[in-house]
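Here we describe the complex-level prediction in full. Unlike the single-chain runs in Section 2.1, the two entities below were treated as one system.
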Amino acid sequence: MTINHHPDEEALAAFAAGTLDEPRSVVVAAHVAMCPHCRATIAAFEQLGGTLVERAVPAASRTGSLDQALARLDEAAPRATVSRQPEPDCPAVLAPYEVGRWRWIGPGVHWRGVEVPESDGTRVFMLKAAPGSSLPHHGHSGIEWTCVLQGAFRHDLGRYGPGDFDAADNTVDHTPVVEEGDVCICLVAMQGNLELRGWIGKLLQPFVRL
Amino acid sequence: MRHEAEAITPPKAASLVRAIATRRDREAFKDLFNFYAPRIKAMLMRGGAADEIAEDLAQETLIAVWRKADSYDPEKATVSAWIFTIARNLRIDRFRKDRRAQLHQVYELMLPAAEDPPDVPFEAVERESRVRAALQGLPEEQVRVVELSFFEGSAHGDIARKLGIPLGTVKSRLRLAMARLRDFLGESS
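The structure predicted for the assembly as a whole is:
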């Protein structure tokens, strides 16, 4: 698997630091799970975090902090939450989340919600599009981060196959076309609503609210 | 002001964790606690946590080190990087808006299985020395911008306001710092 499109460094740093919101983190994680290159970058940022911790000026501790910790060492560990098995067609990183049923939203295109808590108007869902179908020509009212899980699509900026990561924002207005061959399944974090263009889009808009 | 004198070297930290894993060594725990807890607390407070919460989370982090010591793999991460990720995950867990959310699990689920060999270009010790060398050569003003951006997740505009410097300066310092890290980590892409 050759991955050509990666999250930018800023996104990977924020993800490694734990400061990226949950919806976008989940999509970045789906990419990282498939991408050794980005795993190496994450490991480097985690080391940066560790090194910065070492260099930090220590904060004053509460009196008796160490004794309190020592007294707790023999407490039984809280039972680790067992993560669920992912649904079929879902990447492992989605195992902790409820995933909805596929719903038809247009010719050759299905959608299903992923119950990642919404953050700042950003929601997570999966899209499944038939080979050769084109996703509605659309713009964005906010960010749209996509990780391709299976199949491939193309738009003005190139070809996106399994593992590829695509970040679009409100400056992008495009029409992704799914390649012939395999069904294309993507994991998407989208802020705001998709703004569908053209008469089909106008027809779909009222009941899609993507 | 930096506290290099009290620093625990990476091999020393690894041997302390091993002492906990193999013989539940409380003295080793005390050494790790005394070094890391106040620094983790400082990091969490920099990230916006209140004193009490940062104190609790720092304590939880070190207790997790005690419990997870036998799963620590020195080839995959230095102790500092490992502890950083434990603190990060506990903080995410603490501040998540929805109790059902499980983002901290996602960080584990995305990794290859524990028994798989590390798939990153160098081992943890090598990575640590490269990151340290890169940071050592950076002017303090660049390190400050990296810290603010990294720990606090601050937007560039907020960093500029906080430090009283122009936005363009924030961006150029971050760019220089990142370029240097990339050089030292041998990633030219």
